[in-house]
Amino acid sequence: MRKSKSTIDAAASQLRSVVMSTEEGVLLGSEDTLVASLGVSRATVRQVARLLEREGLLRVRRGINGGYFAARPDVHTIEAAVSAYLEMLHTEAEDVTIIASVLWVEALRRAANGTAESKALAEKCLAAVRTLRLDASFHEVLLVEQESRKAIFDLIESRYIELIFQINMAFAQRHFPPAGDRDDTPAHRDFVRAWRHAKQLEFESIADGDPELAMLAAQHSRNLWHRRIWNRDAP
Asked: Which residues, 6 or more positions from 135, have their beta carbon under 8 angstroms from its beta carbon?
């Protein structure tokens, strides 16, 4: 059994290397081709193909024009796989949002780099935050939050930080308690007011090129968001 597992692992590693050195969508060959190139049995090729399909690295097409094609995993594939694993570990969704907050603080530190590009982005995001009404719904606040996140991640060009943040948030959002049904409460209006102030501080610190202040502002805004989502006391 150990030998069989080792053979599958070795063949999978070999095929991953082939896929990663091949353009997405390119035909790698038929099953017979992979049997010959990997030097393993047909049964092993099929097991390896299923493994790489789950990883988003292989696409199998049946029929006359079929075969094995190189693929690339997208964010949704990775999110689904990691979320399933986190579910299996009985991970607390609230803990996951804490990790996302740590990543956001680092993203803001990098964004406050003092460049003309970061200042222009900060001014644009500031305008969006300032136009948000104090009686805005949770959904309206969420849209501005998501748009500003996308802008920051595009600015810092760290796809790894963005990926891990999005994976954590995608998992957590599946467990969020209902939020919109509290839109008309005084606590929600207090949240919107405090969130607007915190976001303005975030973008003002980015515009000023002050990474330390940006980190403090990021932590504050994430704490507000965390309490709002998980029904903690309003600020």
From this structure: 189, 192
User: Is 0.90 surpassed by the pTM of this model?
Assistant: no
Write out pLDDT tens, residues 86-135: 888 888 988 898 999 999 999 999 999 999 999 999 999 999 999 999 89
Mean of per-residue pLDDT scores for the chain: 89
Residue 150 has pLDDT above 50, yes or no: yes
Q: Where are the alpha helices (DSSP H) in the chain?
A: 2-20, 31-38, 42-54, 75-88, 93-111, 116-130, 138-156, 159-173, 186-207, 211-229
The CA-CA-CA angle for residues 226, 174, 95, to 5°, reads 40
Q: What is the dihedral of CA 149, 154, 155, 158, to 10 degrees?
A: 100
Specify the amino acid at residue 72.
R
Return the structure tokens found at 63: 């029929």
What is the distance of C-alpha 215 from the center of its chain?
A: 20
Strand partners for 29: 68
**CATH class of domain segment(s) 2-70:** mainly alpha
- Residue 122's Cβ-count burial label (10 Å; 0-12, 13-18, 19+) is buried
Eight-class DSSP state of 74: -
Kindly list the domain boundaries of the chain, sorted by start residue.
2-70, 76-229
